[in-house]
Task: inverse folding
């Protein structure tokens, strides 16, 4: 079959085939879904941790140095996410996506964001400065978090496929993660309103500042705070 005929047949099949949907109890992996129109639905909190200015890093620094920065940041973020009960769903260059489910998903995701900020400030940057005192480089980042219903399907071709996460949280968390690193952590009002009080206040002081996200016309909360890792 010619490539054009194959593409036309598959596109027609995807648009016409009925969906098989089921409610999920765990974050699915690609093996849990078929390549046909098969989907899992769940309520989840999506976290994107995004290292800032990676293009400048690659353009101005040695390749091995940039690779070490990538590796240290993504390693710390991934370990923290796992420790807080999140499931890592993808790595994309200098950023990592994770999904949290369960009764404390909002609090767990927000605490992960603050712990990633702690790791950046007190673990990664001091070690980098000690190893490369003349590098004049500081790791900066942003974390974006949102909550919504998610529709998860398997996409791609046989032998090369992955999951696609359809839902407001996946898109908006990624967009929040691309905002200015002057506030390393940003969460939507839907996430903030479900936080435990110890993630909202420290000794009576608010840890988050409410602002309007003009691009999306949404209320969000931003923070420069960190959460100590023990």
Result:
């Amino acid at each position: 079959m010619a490539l054009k005929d194959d593409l036309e047949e598959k596109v027609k099949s995807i648009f016409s085939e009925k969906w098989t949907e089921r409610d999920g109890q765990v974050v699915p992996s690609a093996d849990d879904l078929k390549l046909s129109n098969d989907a899992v639905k769940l309520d989840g909190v999506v976290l994107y941790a995004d290292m800032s200015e990676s293009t400048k890093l690659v353009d101005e620094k040695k390749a091995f140095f940039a690779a070490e920065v990538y590796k240290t940041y993504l390693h710390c973020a991934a370990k923290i996410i796992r420790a807080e009960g999140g499931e890592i769903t993808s790595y994309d260059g200098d950023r990592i996506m994770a999904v949290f489910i369960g009764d404390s998903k909002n609090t767990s995701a927000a605490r992960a964001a603050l712990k990633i900020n702690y790791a950046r400030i007190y673990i990664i940057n001091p070690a980098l400065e000690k190893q490369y005192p003349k590098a004049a480089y500081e790791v900066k980042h942003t974390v974006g978090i949102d909550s919504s219903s998610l529709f998860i399907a398997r996409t791609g071709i046989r032998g090369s496929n992955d999951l696609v996460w359809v839902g407001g949280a996946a898109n908006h968390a990624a967009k929040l993660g691309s905002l200015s690193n002057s506030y390393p952590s940003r969460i939507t009002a839907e996430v903030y309103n479900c936080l435990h009080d110890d993630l909202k206040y420290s000794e009576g002081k608010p840890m988050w500042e409410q602002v309007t996200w003009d691009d999306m016309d949404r209320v969000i909360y931003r923070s420069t705070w960190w959460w100590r890792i023990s």
User: Anything to note?
Assistant: The first strand starts at residue 20 and ends at 23. The mean pLDDT is 95. Helices lie at 3-16, 54-60, 63-83, 105-131, 168-176, 189-192. The domain at 19-25+37-223 is CATH 3.30.70.1230 (Alpha-Beta Plaits).
